[in-house]
Structures are given as C-alpha cells and as structure tokens.
Amino acid sequence: MPLAPGSRLDSYEIIAPLGSGGMGEVYRARDATLKRDVAIKVLPEYWSRDPERLRRFEQEAQATAALNHPNIVSIFHVGQYEGSPYIVTELLQGESLRERLYKGQMRLREVLDHGVELARGLAAAHDAGIVHRDLKPESIWVTKDGRIKILDFGLAKLHPAKAASTDAETVSLEPQSHPGQVLGTVGYMSPEQVRGQPADTRSDIFAVGVILYEMLTGKAAFRKATSAETMTAILNEDPPAVSQLSPGVPPGLQRIVSRCLAKNPAQRLQHASDLEFALEALSDSSPSTVTAVNQKVSNKRWFWLAAAAVIVIAIVVALVSWWRQPPAVPLVEAVTQLTDDHEPKRSYNSLATDGTRVYFNEGTAGSLKIAQVAVTGGPTAIIPTRFPIPHLAGLNSEGTSLLVISGNTDVLALPLWTVPMPAGEPRRLGSLEAQDGSIAPDGRILFSRGKDLFIADKDGSNPRKLFSADGLIGEPSISPDNKRLVFTVYLPSGFNSLVLSNADGSGQRALVSGSEGRQACCAQWTPDSRYIVFWDRNQGRPDLWVAESQARFLQRVHPPVRLTNGPLSYTGPVPSRDGKQVFAIGTNQRGELVSYDVSSKRFVPMLPGISAFSPTFSADGKWIAYTSLPDYSLWRCRSDGTDRMQLTYPPVRANYPFISPDGKQVTYADTAGAIYVTSMDGGAQQKVAEKGSSAASWSPDGNLLFYADYGESLRTKFWLYDLRTGNRTLVPESQDLLGVQWVAENLLVAASRDHTKLVLFDVETQKWSDLVSLTKPGIVVNWAHALDYKYVYYTIGGPEPQALRVRLADRKVEIITSLKDLPRAAGMGGQTQISVAPDGSAVFTRDIGSQEVYALTVKWP
C-alpha cells in the first residue's frame, strides 16, 4: 500500500510521493545518516509476487548501479521493506523531457545540447554492455541546470560484463528477453523490437532518432490512432521530413536524424559515441557559436585561424563518418514467381541463366531432371539428357552449353559432361571426375574433388590442382572479371565457410565462417564482380545474403548483409545477366504424413494438420516422434495426434529421430551431426557423439546405438555405442558405406557409397554381405526397418521411383508401390524419407508446400 509521509524505510524518512516511475512508485525521502534528500522507488508488494516484474525491477537496480556517469541517474542503495524491494537514487530537480515537450517546440541550441548529453550517457551504458531498450521522453530528465539524466532501466538488456569506466561497477547477466517477445514503448520501439527480434545498441539509436525528431518538430514521428497502426508505421513508413515541419533545422542535423531512423540497423549510426561526435561537431559549428566568436575576436588573423580550425574539424568529421558509416545495402524492390509446376527443387541447387532462360534441377533425390523457364516466367520444360541423375553445375558465358555432373553426389568423384544448348549430344570432359564444378568466364573448367580444387582447359585437358582446403570444397565460382574466386568449404563440424580468394587460390579470407555455426552456401557473382550473392541458414530459415567482394577506396570491408527476410525461404541464388534481378528458389516448406494402404492402393493421411517429416514409431504403436517442418524441432505425440510435446527448441534443428525399443527415449541428430538421446517425456539431452556424425538407431534390446561418423578423413566409420558403459566399438570394413541402421538382433544394414545396393553386417560373424543389388537404372535413396525386424523397406530413385521391401529371412524383394505421382518432401540435406508404421505400412511425407523459382528485382547501391 502507499507509503505515508513520516513513515520510514530503514534509515530513510518518507517526505512526499513524487508519482510513478517505470516499474514502481517514487517518493521523496530524507537520508537520516547522510542528511540529504533522496528519491526512493518502491515496487508494491503485490507486484513483488509477479516474478517478471520483480526480475525487471532488480535488473533496473543492477543496470543503474553498474553505471557512474553524470548523464545517468546515480543509485545509492538497494533494499527491501516488508516484502517490497526498493532502490534509492539521487533526487533530481527539474522536469522530464516529456513535460518540457508539452511546453512547445525546443530551440535548436537546446536540442543540440540535450542531444549531445543524451548520446554521451547512452554511450557510457553501451560501453558497459547495457542496452536500454525503452528510451522515451518520460525516461529522460532535464535538471534545473539543463543537464540530461537517463532513467528507468527496467527493460535494460545486460550483456556479459565489460568495463564502463575505471571506477564503474560491472554487470554480468545474460539477456533476459526471449525471441518473439515485444519489449519497449509503442512509438519509440525500433523495427526489430516491433518484430520481437533481439535488440542491440542500434535499437537505442533508433529511439534517440525518434526523440530528436520530436524535439525538433514538436510532433511524434510515428504516432497513429492505435498501437497496431503505430507499429505498422514504424515497420513500413518514414515520418514527414524534419524540414517540412521545421524549415530552420540545419541539413546536417536532418541527416543525423534520418540515419538514426533507418529501418535497417546496418544503415543507422552504429555507436552512441558516433552520434555524440556528430552532434558535437554541429554544435561547435552552429551559427550562434560562430557569432559569439566573432563578437569576442575582432582581429582578422584570429578569425581566419578559427575558420581554418572549423574547416579542419569538418573535414575530420566527414572522413571519420565516411570511414565508420555502414555500407549502403541492396534492397529487394519486387518479387516475381517464375515457375508454378509444383515440382520439388533441391536446396543445394546451382541455378544458371543465359539472359533469356533460367536453368535448374528439380525432382526428388535419385530422380533429378534439368528444367528451364523463361526469365519472365511461364511453363517449365525439361531438357532431355541421357543421364539418370544429372546435376546442373554451370553454364558457359555464351549460354551454349551446360556443365553437368552425372551420378549421386554422395560419391566424391563423378564424371563431368558438357550438354550443348539448345540441343545436341553430351560430351565427356576428358577423364575429369568431380563432386562439383563450374565454368569460368574464359571457358576453363573449375572442379572440386574432396578437399582439392582443380582447373582444366575448356575440353577437360591439362587439369592442375590449385589448392587444398580444410573441408570438402563445393560451388566454386570465378568472378566475371576472372580475378577472384569464391567457394564453399563443408567442414567436418557440419557447418560451412564461404571463402574468397584470388583466382589462383592465394589471399584466402572467410566471408562467412563455419566456426560461428553458419551454413553459407552456393555463392554467385554479380555481373560487375562487385558483389557476391549467397544463401545462409544461420541457425534459422534460409535467406539470401550479399557480401562486397572487396573494400572500396578509403573504406573498410563490411560484413555480409541479409537481402531477404521471409516470408519464403530462399536458396540457390544467381544474378541475372544484366544484374537487375536475382533468381532463386523460394520455399514454403510444409509436409503431410501419409501411409500407403496396400488393400486400397491409396496414400492415407496421418496426423492431419501437423507438418511433419521423418516419423518414428514406438514398438507398441502408441507413440510417434517426428521432426516438424519448417523449424525442425523434435516433437512426440500419441498415434492419434493427441498429447503433443515439443522435445527440442530453436536454434537446435533435429533430424532423423528413432524411438527406443521400450518407447521411453528417442535419439536424433542436430544440424552439425551431433547425436543426442532424450526422454520421450522431455528434459535434458544426453550427447552421445560429437559433431561429424549422422543419425543413430537402437539395438533391439535398447542397450546399443549404431551410427556413422563422417570425420576429418572423409571416410565413413561405423560405431557401436554402449549406453551402459559409454564405450564405443569400431565396425570393421565400414568405410565408404552410408546410412546405417539396426534391423534385427544381430544384423545391421547400410548402403554402398554409390547407392546401388544395400548390405548387411552380422555382429556375431563380423562379416558384410549383400542384401539388395539394383538390376535397373536408379539408386537406393532411403531405407528403414520394420518394427518386428522382419523386413527392410527402401525406396529407389530414377526414371521409375518405387517403394519396395526385402524380407530378411530369405532376401525376397517385393514392390510396394510406385512413387512417381507422390510429391515427397525433402528434409535437411535435400533428402526424402521412408518410415514403417506398426501395422507394416510404408510412411512418407507428402510435399504440400511450394518450391518454385522466383525473380527478385534488386536495387543496388
């Protein structure tokens, strides 16, 4: 309840209430010990029982106490009285900036002075690792002597400790907000705060821009009739120009406000100290200051010295601002859908264009085709080739031939071919074998094999090695001016680096580092060789990014910037020949589980309304675990879809789960390939294998896990992991085999590297034997065992994709159904899946999303 005058809080005597402030009630009080008046903010007891309010109140105390700066309110004491926490601060005389604004528009000198002090205090907070996140006129105090004080750090975001000054305390708390949680005050929030995205120091810069705008014009920058309309304006509209409302504002100050209010954080001033410096420079060179100098100094010599000093300062300010300013970024102005054929298109896709057509791969794994569409959109057409699995790798500069790799890309050495356009007989490029490649602007062939990158003449002759990397090399591309090279390095950790170098491989530097948990891929050059366009998952939805290929004169190299931000996921970009557009695959990933009913010969939906991939079933048929699309979280539910529970959360991306035989645990692999085991009831995750592994399956007794390790050597190793002891045993002769699973008490199954057969390993005899060998064109794509361990189910790709099963007792193969008319969704890595339900029916994920080619019209700086 409110504190009455005369009551005491420890050694403080309440004098009078001052009103509410931030998260609590504020009182004027007398410090009986030090004989001074102070302000006390008290959190009411009924608010104290709210953990979130209490946390923020305590956070405000910690944030404010960590700072010792003349432009930030000082804190003297933190205590608790009868269940209500309180903080004691200096008593401020004056008024809030909001009260000052009620009196009318502010003078230019007043705005500059207050702006400099506001930026100075904010810079001190940022240097201490504190982001305010709720700056507004109500949280800024103007003292009687005209000094600015920043208040109300109740929503402050505290980063790991770093010194604010030599005599300041430090803080060491992690950020407390959660993704998707909107924090701040409507009208002063930055666009990223409106979206519920993490706020950083640039979010405070945006709020300062709104406050400066209001101080200069007397009008709110984004005030609308409702909160929703105000937030929409923050995201999509620019306020009226300052000059329209206040013609006398100097152009330099208008530019500063505009920079603060940029929608893209990368285009704002990046540091509060930059803002302080810019405002001080304007303040020092304002007309009133120059007039004062002229009145005091009549000597012409001193006048010219002062003028020269002003010019030098202006030049220094301009150079520093130019050096430190963020790059002008490209913007997507329009998006046009080019295809509408409802065919799946691989994420790791090499699009190519000759200026009139766009070429791309489509179809499921093992049944790929090369297709084309006009750059203006329309029907797609298949380019006939005699290859069962043609992978499009590139297009020559004349647009007269495609570079094609024939075979399954799990193999690191596949033949390279050129396919004449618009028609003609494919030609083998000498004896070249590669896992990826491209055609250089001068016609030479760039190709990778394992960790090595090579280059050969146009006809495939004279191949020579350029260099080696620390991981598999993919998507090599030489710039149109033939001077530089960009390529992807697929690291054993499961992450990717994007590397830029000179055309001969020298001078390598990472544009994006896989050590930061990035998955950048598939970089292509703009026609002027100035920019590199690529896609990057960055622990979330794939989006297109842009990087400068080199720094411009007197400017530093800037980090890559995001080009797209939903609602579709974009992959496989390639700029148009005129550079005005970027072609890419736009994906809205949705999947519907279906089982094949043999009696009716139909695919029957399962778990309606749930977008799922790679389901796994408990032996008793009561439970299902699956990966959700598109976020790749691990869920479990009952067989009828009820009692759903999420087991993993972003940014963890789960893949290929398997339920234990007793139905109590589930194992899965994350993006990097690390293997975990968790309870079907949720809880802690137990790591079984480090990065570089694939999904694991259980032994029938539930004591062992079987998994593959694709380590530094790029040669597969199979391991048996004993959950009881933590020991693991190497499976002999497992090199160059893929996708291991436990299929019976003493039997393991895997596929050959070329996907032409399934093989069995007998744990007792330690011997391998063939289970299935394909007799017609195609490859084995996916496989899974029946819950009764009597059959292995598998799919084959090629001209006639099918689902089949083989009986382990006598190795008899039977066809289940054709998959030609079933659009199957692909998970991470572009793979489809097959599962087996408790009743023995084959289960697939039917693609009900969209994956089409789009043209993005880009405005380049």
SSE diagram, text form:
Layout (H helix, E strand, L loop, with lengths): L7 E2 L2 E10 L2 E8 L4 E7 L2 H4 L2 H15 L9 E7 L2 E7 L3 E3 H6 L5 H20 L2 E2 L8 E4 L4 E3 L6 E2 L32 H4 L6 H17 L9 H10 L5 H4 L5 H10 L11 H13 L2 H10 L3 H25 L6 E7 L14 E2 L3 E6 L6 E6 L6 E3 L6 E6 L5 E6 L7 E7 L6 E8 L1 E4 L5 E5 L2 E5 L7 E5 L3 E7 L5 E7 L5 E7 L6 E4 L8 E5 L5 E6 L6 E6 L12 E2 L6 E7 L5 E8 L2 E7 L4 E4 L6 E6 L5 E6 L5 E5 L6 E2 L8 E5 L5 E5 L5 E5 L5 E5 L7 E2 L5 E7 L5 E7 L5 E4 L5 E8 L2 E6 L4 E6 L4 E7 L5 E7 L5 E7 L4 E6 L5 E6 L16 E2 L5 E6 L2 E10 L2
Antiparallel strand pairs: 1-2, 2-3, 3-4, 4-6, 5-6, 7-9, 8-11, 9-10, 12-59, 13-14, 14-15, 15-16, 17-18, 18-19, 19-20, 21-22, 22-23, 23-24, 25-26, 26-27, 27-28, 29-30, 30-31, 31-32, 33-34, 34-59, 35-36, 35-58, 37-38, 38-39, 39-40, 41-42, 42-43, 43-44, 45-46, 46-47, 47-48, 49-50, 50-51, 51-52, ...
Helix pairs in contact: 4-6, 4-10, 6-9, 10-12
- Count of helical regions: 12
CATH superfamily of the domain at 331-585: TolB, C-terminal domain
Work out the number of β strands: 59
What is the highest CATH level, the class of the domain at 331-585? Mainly Beta
Shape estimate: globular
Sheet having the most strands: 6 strands, antiparallel
Q: Give the oligomer, counting copies of the same chain as homo and different chains as hetero.
A: single chain
**Helix percent band:** 10-25%
Mean pLDDT figure: 84
Q: Tell me which CATH architecture of the domain at 331-585 applies here.
A: 6 Propeller
User: Would you identify the regions where 5 or more consecutive residues have pLDDT less than 50?
Assistant: 158-182, 286-299
CATH topology of the domain at 331-585: Neuraminidase
Structural class: alpha+beta
Strand content: 35-45%
Distance between the ends: 59 Å
Any idea what the radius of gyration is? 32 Å
In spatial order, strands of the major sheet run: 1-2-3-4-6-5
